[in-house]
Amino acid sequence: HVQLVESGGGSVQAGGSLRLSCTISGYTDNGYSMGWFRQAPGQKREGVAAIDRGGIITDYAHSVKGRFTISRDNAKNTLYLQMDSLKPEDTARYFCAADTLWFGLNPQYRYWGQGTQVTVSS
User: Fold this and answer.
1) Considering only CA atoms, which of 60, 1, 17 is closest in space to residue 9?
2) Is the per-residue pLDDT at 27 higher than 80?
């Protein structure tokens, strides 16, 4: 049974930084492609960043490109999202997701965490 647990959310002023983490358990030998998504109240879930099993291929939403960096440490079964130059419009609940297939920023992943809240004030 695969479980994902996010951490690292919080409140920060515009221009600040946060680093989100997502630990995955119930790992398979083949590994998972993983992604970060976010959802603000009343909004659709939006793909933020994605990374393949080996950490080689990445994809970013246009709105975060150049400000957010996705990475992973497979030895620690952990996914990261470094968020810099945060803006009020980045305020949302952030979720990590995993799947044995590559879905990029498409929210078709099989496994999801419960999310962590990020609030950016102006």
Assistant:
1) 17
2) no
